[in-house]
C-alpha cells in the first residue's frame, strides 16, 4: 500500500496551477483534500505521473451566498472549501438548508475537515451525497483551463461511476448550488450500514408549496442506486394535493419503481429499491412539513 | 496485610498515558535504517506455479534481493510446522514460507523482495511476473463437502479432520424423548483485525553471531524456538521481543508466520537489518480468519424443557492449511455445553479444506459458534413448549452444589472437561434484574402503541480459561527499591503493566509506582507459553504472585537478621519492613535488597552498607549461605491441573425498523463471573472490547469470498467493523465465585465479552420479528428478505416445516433454513 513514484507540484496561484496542468498533460491528478485520491494511489488503483496539489490556492477557499445572473439566490463553493466549511457556513445554512442536511451524512467529521465539496463532485462517486444535491438543485460546476472556462450543468457533469466530464488540463474551480424559489422545503434521508459509511441508499427531497398550501412541485434525487445521481419528479403523484393530504407513500413507490439499483455485498438491489421507496416517502413528508413551516414563519414575521 | 491495598481496586491503566500520547513503540517504530520487504502474493485462489520471471525487477534502483522458494535451503525449504497436532487431524497440511509449486489461497506469499524502502520493494513486486496454471477453487463449506474438486490432491473429501466425542447414547435419548427440535445454523467468517497488523524486524550481529527479532506476536518464546529450529541456530543465539503490540485477538498466537522466519533469514544473508510491516490488505488475505461453520442440531427434551439428549454435527471451514490444528472446532464442540447439563451428548465435526485464508482462533476461538448452537436450541425449546426463555435455561443449569462438574469429555488442553466453580442461578437472577426481564412485556406493549417493534434476548456461556501448561514470574527488588517484574507471555493491550503490578505490590507490600513490569521479552524471561485463551491473568498473575511470595519470605529473613527480630513478627508496609506493633523498628525494603547481596566494591553510599567491613559477620560462615543466593529476587511458576471455567450471561433489547429493517441495540447488559477480580475496571474494559467484537460478528462483519476465491471486501471500507457509534452502552454487573484451582482464585476474562454476541442478538431480533433467526451475521438487507419470505399471518405455524430462502448478499449462496419438529 505505497504509491508508485510521481512528480509533485505545488502551485501558489490558480494561474500557476492551470499552467502546470497545461504543461504536464493528461497523466496528472489534482490533489485537494485527498480523501479518495490518496487511498486509491496507495492501493495502486490510481497511478498519476504528476500530482498537482492545489492546497495553496487560498483564493478558492470560499463559500459565498449571493445573487445569480437570473436574479435568484445561489451558494457558490470554491474548490478549496472543505465539506466542514460548507456545513458550518451560517449564511449557506440559512439560504440552502439542504447543504448541511446532506453534508452531515458525508463520511465522518475528520474526513469532512479535509475533503472538499468540489473535489467530491469531480470524483463523481455515485454514493457521494453532494453529487445528488447538485443534481437535485440543478447546479453547475465551473471548469477552467489556462486558456478557457466553461460551466457545466449537473445533468451533464456526471458521466458514469467515478467519471465526471472534467477533461485533462481542467481544474474544477467552483460549484454553484442555486437556492430553490418559492415555498420550498428540503430533506435528506439515508441508510448506511454504519454511521458515516457510504449509503446503501440516500434520498434528497425538495417540496414546493403554492400560496394555499398545495403541492406545486416535488422532486427527489438518489445516491447509491445507480451509476450517476438520479433525479426524479414525483409531481404526477402529489401535485395539487393539499400538503396534509399528499400521499407520500405512493410517491415513494412511484419513484422506487423507476429505479434499477444493483446488488452488492452490503445489500440486494431489491432491498435498495424497497429502501428507496421508504426513504423517499420519509424525505418528502419532512420536506413538505418544512415548506409548510416556512410559510408560517414568513406570515408570523409579517404580522 | 499492608497499607498499600491495590489488589481488587479499579485503578487506572498505568500504560495508557504513554500509549495515548503517542509514545508507544511498535515494531514499525523500530529499525529506521532497515531494508524493507514486500511480497508478491498469489492473486489466485488455486493454481500451480508454472514459472517466475524476475528479470524486469532486477534494474529497479534500490533493490537489495529477490527470493523464491528455490532460494530457501535446509529446514527453511520445508513446510511450516503444524503447531498443535491431534490424532483426529489425519490430514494436516501447512504451507511453505514461500509457495512451492502450488498456491492454495489468494494472498499466499510467492516471492520476497528486499529493497531500500517499502515503496521500492512494491515497485519491484509490480515488475515480477508469475505464470499460473489454474486449478478449480473450492470456496465455501458446501463446495468443500461436495468435494467435486480437491484443495489438496492427497486429501480425500477435503476432510482435514473428523472427530466424534460422546457421553451416553444421544441418538437413542433423542429418539425416546417426547419433544425434539432440529436446527440448521450458520455463522460466517470474521477475523481478529487488530489495528496493528503483523510486523517483523530482525538484526543479525555478525560479531557475536546473535540474532534479535522484534515481532508483533502473542508468543515470543515460541517464536524464538521456531526461528532457532528453522534457521538452524542455537536457541541461545536468538532473542525475540514483542514490543508494544497493537492488538492480537488470536491471530498473532499463530507462529511462526512465514515472515517471522523469512525476515531474520534474509537479515542474516544480507548482513543488514531488515523489516516487514504488514499492510491492511495483506492482513485481510494473508493472516487468518475464523468463525465460519455450518451446524445441524437435534435436541430431545422433556415436557419441562429439560434436555435429554443433544446431538450436533458441524462442518468447520479451516481454509487452505491447518498450522494451528483443530483447536477451534474442538472448542466449539466442548464449550457449547455452556452452563447446562445436556443429557446424553454427541458432537461430531468435519474440519474441511477450502481455497481461502487459514482459520485459526480469534477471540472466543470457536465458543461464539458453540454458544450460538446451544442458545438457539434453548430458545427453540422455550418456543416449542411456550415457556419463558429464562425458565428453560434455569431448568437445565448445573447447580452450584454440583461443582466441580465433570462433563466426561476431553477439553482443548487434552484434560478432562471439569467445571471448577460457578453459580449460574445467581447470575441469571442478576441478569434478569439488570435488564428488567420480567417488565419487558409492558415496554413492548408501549413501544407497539408507538408503531415501534422491539425484542429482548439473552444468552449464557461458560468459558474454559487459563489453560496450561504453565507460566513463570520473576520478581527482584533493586537496591533503589524498584521492584522489577518479568513474565514471558506477551501483552497486546490487556493492561498487564497494571494488573501484574497490582498483584506484586499487594504481595510485597510496596507502592505500585515502584513496580515495573516487562512481558514478552526473551532476554528477560526465557520460559513461557503465550497470551491466548484468556490465560494471562490466571497464569502469569499467579506466577508473579508466587515469585513475589518467595521474595517476601527472603526479605523478611534478611530484615529479621538486621532488626534482630523473628521474621514471623515482621510485616511490609509501603516498602518498609517493620516489627508489627513496634514503631521505629523498621528497615526499608531497598536496604534489605542491598544487604541481600554481599559486596566487595562500594560504588555508592548504599553499596557501602553491603561491603565486607561494614557490618559484623560470623567469620565461620560464608557471606552467601550454602542454600542461599545473592540478591533479593525470586522466580516461580504456576502450572494448573486443568482449566478454570469462567461464565457469564448477556441480555439485549433491540429495535427493528418495521420499514427499513435497520437493527438498533437499545440496551446491552452483561453479568460476568471471572472469579476474584484483580482490577474491576480492566475487566470491564475487556468486556466492552469483547462485546464490541460480538456486535461486529452479529450485525456487521463477514468475509465475502466470491466463487473464484477472491475476497470481495478486503478493506476497512467494506469489511464493517463497528465504530463507537454502533456499539451500545454496556451495562455490567459482576459476580465473584473464586476458582479453587489457583492461589489467587482467578478465572480468565479476555474473551468472555465476545462469546454470546451472535446468540443474544439473534434471540432479541427473533423476539422482535416473530420468526426464526438461524444465520449470523444479519444485515438489514437480509432481515428485509427474511420478512418478505415469511408466510402471511395465520397461514400456518411459524415453527413447522417452514423453509425460508434468503437471498445472499455476498459471494456465497445462502442455505435454506428450517426448523422442524419430529
UniProtKB/TrEMBL annotation, chain A:
Statement: the UniProt record of this protein carries the keyword Flavoprotein: yes
SUPFAM superfamilies tied to this protein: CO dehydrogenase flavoprotein C-terminal domain-like (SSF55447), FAD-binding/transporter-associated domain-like (SSF56176)
Gene3D superfamilies: 3.30.465.10, CO dehydrogenase flavoprotein, C-terminal domain (3.30.390.50), Uridine Diphospho-n-acetylenolpyruvylglucosamine Reductase, domain 2 (3.30.43.10)
UniProt keyword list: FAD, Flavoprotein, Oxidoreductase
Pfam families: CO_deh_flav_C, FAD_binding_5
Residue span, FAD-binding PCMH-type domain: 1-182
Any GO MF annotation of the entry: oxidoreductase activity
Highest taxon above the source species: Bacteria
Keyword Flavoprotein: yes
Record's protein name: Xanthine dehydrogenase family protein subunit M
UniProtKB/TrEMBL annotation, chain B:
Domain Aldehyde oxidase/xanthine dehydrogenase a/b hammerhead: 21-136
Keywords recorded for this protein, A-Z: Molybdenum, Oxidoreductase
Pfam annotation, one family: MoCoBD_2
InterPro entries: Ald_Oxase/Xan_DH_a/b, Ald_Oxase/Xan_DH_a/b_sf, Ald_Oxase/xanthine_DH-like, AldOxase/xan_DH_MoCoBD1, AldOxase/xan_DH_MoCoBD2, AldOxase/xan_DH_Mopterin-bd_sf
Identification of the protein by name: Xanthine dehydrogenase family protein
Start and end residues of each stretch annotated as Disordered: 612-640, 782-822
GO MF: iron ion binding; oxidoreductase activity
Amino acid at each position: 500500500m505505497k504509491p508508485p513514484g510521481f512528480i509533485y507540484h505545488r502551485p501558489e496561484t490558480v494561474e500557476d496551477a492551470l499552467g502546470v496542468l497545461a504543461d504536464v498533460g493528461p497523466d496528472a491528478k489534482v490533489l485537494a483534500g485527498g480523501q479518495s485520491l490518496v487511498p486509491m494511489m496507495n492501493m495502486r488503483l490510481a497511478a498519476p505521473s504528476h500530482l498537482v496539489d492545489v492546497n495553496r490556492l487560498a483564493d478558492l477557499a470560499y463559500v459565498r451566498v449571493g445573487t445569480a445572473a437570473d436574479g435568484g439566490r445561489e451558494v457558490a463553493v470554491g474548490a478549496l472549501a472543505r465539506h466542514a466549511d460548507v456545513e458550518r457556513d451560517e449564511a449557506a445554512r440559512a439560504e440552502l438548508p439542504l447543504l448541511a442536511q446532506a453534508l452531515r451524512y458525508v463520511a465522518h467529521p475528520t474526513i469532512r475537515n479535509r475533503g472538499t465539496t468540489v473535489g467530491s463532485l469531480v470524483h463523481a462517486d455515485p454514493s457521494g451525497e453532494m453529487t445528488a444535491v447538485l443534481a437535485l438543485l440543478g447546479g453547475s460546476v465551473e471548469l477552467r483551463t489556462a486558456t478557457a472556462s466553461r460551466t457545466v450543468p449537473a445533468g451533464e457533469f456526471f458521466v458514469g461511476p467515478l467519471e465526471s466530464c472534467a477533461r485533462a488540463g481542467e481544474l474544477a474551480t467552483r460549484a454553484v448550488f442555486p437556492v430553490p424559489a418559492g415555498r420550498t422545503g428540503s430533506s435528506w434521508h439515508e441508510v448506511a450500514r454504519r454511521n458515516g459509511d457510504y449509503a446503501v441508499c440516500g434520498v434528497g427531497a425538495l417540496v414546493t408549496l403554492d400560496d394555499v398550501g398545495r403541492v406545486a412541485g416535488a422532486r427527489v434525487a438518489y445516491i447509491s442506486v445507480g451509476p450517476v445521481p438520479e433525479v426524479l419528479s414525483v409531481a404526477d403523484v402529489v401535485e395539487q394535493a393539499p400538503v396534509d393530504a399528499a400521499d407520500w407513500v405512493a410517491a415513494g413507490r412511484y419513484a422506487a419503481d423507476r429505479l434499477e439499483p444493483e446488488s452488492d455485498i452490503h445489500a440486494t438491489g431489491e432491498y435498495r429499491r424497497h429502501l428507496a421507496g421508504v426513504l423517499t416517502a420519509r424525505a418528502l413528508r419532512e420536506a413538505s412539513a418544512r415548506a409548510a413551516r416556512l410559510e408560517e414563519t414568513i406570515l408570523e414575521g409579517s404580522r | 496485610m499492608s497499607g498499600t491495598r491495590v489488589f481488587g481496586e479499579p485503578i487506572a491503566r498505568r500504560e495508557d498515558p504513554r500509549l495515548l500520547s503517542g509514545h508507544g513503540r511498535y515494531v514499525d517504530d523500530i529499525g529506521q535504517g532497515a531494508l524493507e520487504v514486500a511480497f508478491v502474493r498469489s492473486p489466485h485462489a488455486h493454481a500451480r506455479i508454472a514459472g517466475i520471471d524476475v528479470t524486469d525487477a532486477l534494474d529497479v534502483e534500490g533493490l537489495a534481493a529477490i527470493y523464491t522458494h528455490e532460494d530457501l535451503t535446509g529446514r527453511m525449504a520445508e513446510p511450516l510446522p503444524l503447531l498443535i497436532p491431534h490424532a483426529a487431524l489425519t490430514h494436516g497440511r501447512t504451507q511453505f514460507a514461500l509457495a512451492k509449486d502450488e498456491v492454495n489461497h489468494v494472498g499466499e506469499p510467492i516471492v520476497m523482495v528486499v529493497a531500500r524502502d517499502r515503496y521500492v520493494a512494491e515497485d519491484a513486486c509490480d515488475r515480477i511476473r508469475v505464470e499460473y496454471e489454474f486449478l478449480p477453487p473450492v470456496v465455501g463449506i458446501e463446495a468443500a463437502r461436495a468435494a467435486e474438486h480437491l484443495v489438496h490432491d492427497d486429501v480425500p473429501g477435503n476432510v482435514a479432520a473428523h472427530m466424534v466425542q460422546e457421553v451416553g447414547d444421544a441418538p437413542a435419548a433423542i429418539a425416546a424423548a417426547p419433544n425434539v427440535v432440529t436446527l440448521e445454523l450458520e455463522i460466517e467468517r470474521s477475523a481478529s483485525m487488530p489495528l496493528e497488523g503483523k510486523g517483523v524486524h530482525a538484526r543479525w550481529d555478525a560479531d557475536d553471531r546473535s540474532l534479535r527479532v522484534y515481532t508483533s506476536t502473542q508468543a515470543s518464546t515460541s517464536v524464538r524456538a521456531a526461528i532457532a529450529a528453522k534457521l538452524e541456530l542455537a536457541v541461545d543465539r536468538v532473542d525475540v521481543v514483542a514490543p508494544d503490540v497493537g492488538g492480537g485477538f488470536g491471530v498473532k498466537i499463530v507462529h511462526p508466520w512465514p515472515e517471522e522466519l523469512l525476515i531474520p533469514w534474509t537479515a542474516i544473508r544480507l548482513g543488514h537489518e531488515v523489516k516487514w510491516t504488514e499492510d491492511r490488505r495483506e492482513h485481510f488475505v494473508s493472516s487468518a480468519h475464523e468463525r465460519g461453520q455450518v451446524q445441524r442440531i437435534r435436541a430431545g427434551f422433556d415436557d419441562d424443557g429439560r434436555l435429554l439428549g443433544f446431538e450436533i454435527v458441524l462442518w468447520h471451514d479451516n481454509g487452505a492449511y491447518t498450522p494451528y490444528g483443530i483447536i477451534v472446532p474442538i472448542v466449539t464442540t466442548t464449550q457449547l455445553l455452556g452452563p447446562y447439563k445436556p443429557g446424553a451428548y454427541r458432537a461430531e465435526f468435519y474440519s474441511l479444506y477450502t481455497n481461502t485464508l487459514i482459520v485459526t482462533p480469534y477471540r472466543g476461538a470457536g465458543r461464539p459458534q458453540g454458544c450460538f448452537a446451544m442458545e438457539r436450541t434453548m430458545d427453540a425449546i422455550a418456543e416449542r413448549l411456550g415457556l419463558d426463555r429464562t425458565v428453560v435455561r434455569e431448568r437445565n443449569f448445573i447447580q452450584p452444589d454440583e461443582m466441580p462438574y465433570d462433563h466426561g469429555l476431553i477439553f482443548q488442553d487434552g484434560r478432562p472437561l471439569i467445571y471448577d466453580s460457578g453459580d449460574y442461578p445467581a447470575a441469571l437472577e442478576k441478569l434478569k434484574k439488570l435488564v428488567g426481564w420480567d417488565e419487558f412485556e409492558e415496554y413492548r406493549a408501549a413501544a407497539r402503541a408507538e408503531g415501534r417493534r422491539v425484542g429482548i434476548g439473552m444468552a449464557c456461556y461458560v468459558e474454559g480459561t487459563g489453560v496450561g501448561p504453565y507460566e513463570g514470574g520473576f520478581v527482584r527488588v533493586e537496591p533503589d527499591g524498584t521492584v522489577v517484574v518479568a513474565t514471558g507471555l506477551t501483552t497486546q493491550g490487556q493492561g498487564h503493566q497494571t494488573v501484574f503490578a497490582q498483584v506484586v505490590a499487594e504481595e510485597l507490600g510496596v507502592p505500585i509506582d515502584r513496580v515495573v513490569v516487562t512481558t514478552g521479552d526473551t532476554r528477560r524471561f526465557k520460559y513461557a507459553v503465550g497470551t491466548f485463551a484468556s490465560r494471562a491473568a490466571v497464569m502469569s498473575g499467579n506466577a508473579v504472585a508466587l515469585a513475589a511470595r518467595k521474595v517476601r519470605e527472603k526479605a523478611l529473613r534478611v530484615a529479621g537478621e538486621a532488626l534482630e527480630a523473628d521474621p514471623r513478627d515482621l510485616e511490609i508496609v509501603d516498602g518498609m519492613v517493620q516489627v508489627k506493633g513496634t514503631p521505629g523498628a523498621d528497615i526499608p525494603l531497598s536496604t534489605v535488597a542491598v544487604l541481600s547481596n554481599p559486596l566487595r566494591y562500594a560504588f555508592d553510599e548504599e553499596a557501602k552498607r553491603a561491603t565486607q567491613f561494614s557490618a559484623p559477620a560470623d567469620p565461620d560462615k560464608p557471606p552467601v549461605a550454602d542454600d542461599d543466593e545473592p540478591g533479593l529476587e525470586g522466580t516461580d511458576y504456576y502450572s494448573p491441573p486443568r482449566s478454570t471455567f469462567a461464565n457469564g450471561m448477556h441480555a439485549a433489547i433491540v429495535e427493528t425498523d418495521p420499514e427499513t429493517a435497520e437493527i438498533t441495540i437499545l440496551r446491552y447488559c452483561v453479568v460476568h463471573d471471572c472469579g476474584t477480580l484483580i482490577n474491576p475496571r480492566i475487566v470491564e474494559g475487556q468486556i466492552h472490547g469483547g462485546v464490541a467484537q460480538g456486535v461486529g460478528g452479529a450485525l456487521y462483519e463477514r468475509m465475502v469470498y466470491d466463487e473464484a476465491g477472491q475476497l470481495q471486501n478486503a478493506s476497512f471500507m467494506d469489511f464493517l467493523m463497528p465504530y463507537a457509534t454502533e456499539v451500545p452502552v454496556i451495562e455490567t454487573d459482576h459476580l465473584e465465585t473464586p476458582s479453587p484451582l489457583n492461589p489467587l482464585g482467578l478465572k480468565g476474562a479476555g474473551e468472555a465479552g465476545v462469546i454470546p454476541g451472535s446468540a443474544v442478538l439473534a434471540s432479541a431480533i427473533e423476539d422482535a420479528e416473530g420468526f426464526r433467526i438461524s444465520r449470523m451475521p444479519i444485515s438489514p438487507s437480509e432481515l428485509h428478505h427474511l420478512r418478505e419470505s415469511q408466510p402471511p399471518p395465520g397461514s400456518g405455524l411459524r415453527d413447522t416445516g417452514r423453509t425460508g430462502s434468503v437471498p445472499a448478499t455476498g459471494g456465497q449462496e445462502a442455505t435454506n433454513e428450517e426448523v422442524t419438529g419430529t
